[in-house]
User: Fold these one by one.
Assistant:
Number 1:
Amino acid sequence: MNRLLAEKDNPQADVYWANEPIRAELLKQQGISVSYSSPEAAGIPQRFKDPQGHWTGFSARARLLVVRKDLKDRPDSILAYTDPRWQGQGVIANPLFGTTTAEIAALFTIWGDLRGKSFMDSMRANGVRISTSNGESADFVASGEAQFSLVDSDDGFNRVKQGKPIETVFPDQEQQAIGCMIVPNALLQIRGGPNPENAKKLIDFLLSPESERKLAFSDAAQIPLHPGVNTPAGVPRIESLKTMDLNYAEIARTMREIQPFLEKWMQK
């Protein structure tokens, strides 16, 4: 992203493939992208696209819980982090980085600042353990050092595939719950790139249902955003999940706004 910003006046790239929409949105705000609505994106739900067509989401990760396989009463909500039943038994990746930051920002946009801060403080008071990454969080659960953790779906799917004693749980699936967070990849065309027509062809190819099917069956185990795309066992179809109703541009703004709070929270 920083290189694209540095090359703004002399673009060298044609297409940017981001592993989440936040950076794509920031590039749009900096005037790096140009609007392009691919015909292959017609079946992708509008909530995974920029309203002005500057980026399009595809092939997503979900934020889910990994839990110990031997647990009888499994956590099924992110609110487990604040539940006294699970005191000291949950682990979460450092909230200053990556998709953990994005999910906390998403919670702040859904709940508001007051409830968002209350959730974070209650999680800390309930003895949450902080790891360095989502992968380490999943490994802590697999080794028995923790009972559950919130991670990216590829971290969970890969460890299940390796035979680790864990299960994946898509959180907050009840009718009145907020749903799980979906983190799609995002594609955008670079403004002034040297090969604009080929850029569109590449975007069309990557956004196709067939490309999403291939990514679902890859080690990345990504969730297609086109409905009805075939997926392997354990990788759900997007239409089967209750997902957070998110505005990714708002999340990008909120991430910047809550950074000082998160830095203080980490020092507690």
Number 2:
Amino acid sequence: MGFGCNGFGWGGWMGMGGGWIGLILNVALFAGVLALLGLAAVWFVRQFRRTTPMQETTPDPLEIVQRRLAAGEITIAEFEEIRDRLQS
């Protein structure tokens, strides 16, 4: 048993030498591996990129009171009293 084209060594695709079909399958396999590597790189970058932390903004107390007045939850007298307390 030699290691030529028809042996167990470099015999080609299914022992038939491969030809154009073997070439096409090899190129398709190589392209698939490259695509998977590219997708893995994109996933890795998205998972571990640094993002700036979101700054939590607390609404202004006067804005909250104005919204409550607009929604009808408090009266104008109550609004003015709360506003005066907040501004002092």
Number 3:
Amino acid sequence: MFSSLGHFVSSLPAWVVLAAGVITGSIKSMWTQVYDHSIGWLGKKISLSVIIEDTQHKEAYQWVSFWVESRLRERKINSVVIRRNGSTKRHYRNTSARVITIHFEEPEDYSLMPGYGTYYIRHPTGLPMVVTHTCEKIQGDGGPTTRGPKVHNIEIKIWFSRDRNLLISLIEDARREYLNSLTPTVTYYRYRSYNGWDEGEALSKRPFESIYLREGLLDDVVSDMQTFLTSKHRYNFLNIPYRRGYLLEGPPGTGKSSLILALASHFNLPTYALSVAKMDGENLESAMTDCTTPCIMVFEDVDTLKVAVSREQSSGIERLTMSDFLNCIDGIGASEGRIVFMTSNHPEVLDDAVVRAGRIDRSYHIGHATDRELKMFYDRLSSQYPVCGWPEFRRSLPDIATIADAQAVAFRGLDEVRDEQGCCQYRP
């Protein structure tokens, strides 16, 4: 039948085929115009809609996807998209996703999203709602034949209402449900040169009970950060840029990075780590402005950076100048809503311009652990695991020790022997 039809079409004159194509196209165009100015116009008058793109609205896309999938779950719809759990940042990495049938529970590092298509559900108010999940391929810069990134869209249309607050409340509900479903973690990002921020790594939250510092230091840092995070209106009123800087200095292994992770855990702030050695001013500015705020931004071991200790023009591999570095931290166009932490083993070599007030607002010395701090670590360790007595534990440490030394001995203690009196001794 189809072969006969094909033969019939091929036997027609070319002008007949061309005319048929023109007529068909005209009818389609006319119907589109009629629909848009009749049924389509009426539909827009009795509905409201919003389109959420994962490239532009990464956070909202994750929230709404979770919200929709959870309401489709009871219908036993098994066509879903599995995605790696990224972060709440604005970036999008081109990752392949395929529609599959899932028969297992959702993995911790992945999330399930509704498969591509149209779904009919109800808004919490009872109004009918249409959700359309699509995937579009963006044309590359080199023309239609080049491969571009994929854009995933979710369009929500609520019928018989013009109240935009319905959309706002839905997105807020989706955000709340999504965040409540997550395992408590800190999202940690690293900047990958010209590839931008990575997808983000979910780190387990670090409790303050696992931080061992001199008495009063932790409370001081927490109080200062709390004041900053709740004083945005004061900064705006005084026309002061809304940002804060801290320097944590001291010997290696004293817990500077652990303190930053614990603070990020306590305040639920995403953490961005920057290695500026191979960056230029433009890259650094882009990295620092393209972050979710509020956030923590970390420059580790700044005393090893030439731009932080010398005003001489960088050359060779180092393309960043001190002027670039300082302007990105607190220049006229520097981003706001962020907390900068710098760590250093040798703060005395840092240029005064780097650590002046306004760039570094508070400086804390994280020194070697005292016996009080080592005993706090020991008490926490011995509350869960069989270990020898505190005097033996302390003798196994150097006279001038760090918490890192104590941690090493704790794990070495798993391979233990006993002396003639039966006391536990750590094997060197």
Number 4:
Amino acid sequence: MAHACHDRLVVLSGRGSVVVREWTGPAGAPVLLLLHGVALDVDTNWSLAADALAARYRVLAIDLRGHGTGLPVSGTFRLEDCADDVAAVLLTLGTGPVIPVGFSIGGMVAQLLWRRHRDLVAGLVLCSTARNVTGSPLERLLAMAMPWAVVTASWFAPFSPVGTDAIAGPLLDVSLAPAQRRAAVAQMRRVPLATALDAMRAACSFSSHLWIGGVDVPTAVLVTRHDRIVAPQRQRRLAAAVPGAVVVEIDGDHGVFLADPTGFAEGLRQACAAVTLPVAPTSSTAA
């Protein structure tokens, strides 16, 4: 059964306006806040799973700055700014503490939301994400090159046929049906290339190693077993670093939310249940 869904324009003092999508869910249900990955938006990352979650939760979702209907980027793209944007939305709506559900770079924003605004976080669900993504020599080399790519894209994007889809398209599963890939790639192209590259640079610079062990709210980590973008072992290390974190594993690559929406939704359901039930198991695995 489909659940009611609507968009509302929320004016944030000193920041601008952002569109918040809401699936109402049962009265008094815990509140989930969905945070998407780089070069994506609410529709692409979450629309196929959010309705399933709304059977048990009030579900909110917003586009990160520079993406979709999110706030504009002013200067450098910073994950900390994204976390503060989220906090401003929650305070304006008066939601009280919520459970951020962050995918990939959205999972990094969720971690920062806990660190910077702990009173707004009741739990964490971290999907296909990590404490950092720049450990190997090759990854460090790419991270060092990223700032130059951002500057180049800013200068030459108006004259170049290369769009964000050419950079972010490889994030999608190779098994996607042609129509699904075309729709996702069309959305990616709407994100300015310089913004997408700068967001990737921010992800390459992110590290929560020094503080993620202090997380004091129920946490679940949804691991995508065949992920080519965020190595599964990095996802598992994130889970191991958070005291008492529940691990839910699903088969799928980084674009599992499109390639296998049913499996993704079931993994999310288990992960969210693990942080909202009175007693959570120490480990869980979804086939």
